[in-house]
Design brief:
94 residues; mainly alpha; two-stranded antiparallel ribbon; 11% strand; elongated; disordered N terminus
Amino acid sequence: MSARATLGFSQQGRAIVYVNECKATCTNMNGWFAALYFLFFAVIAGGAFAMMWGNIRNTSWDKPAKRHPEAPQPGEEVLYANFSREKLEELYQK
């Protein structure tokens, strides 16, 4: 028996009958598809793990944090607004 599908007519000639003759090949192909699925799964999972590992290693706690160029120097005065409740009540009463 060959591993192919055939198309034929029923004995009355009214309905088309589809006969599937690939039982051994389909079982073998399902095994290949399962192996291919798990291979791709392993590749994607390995890539995700490698990316996470690289990101964790790139974030080193030993390096000092870079200072922002617009940050004030130590001892330098900065202008700020005080929005405490007491100051706001004084402003609204005036």
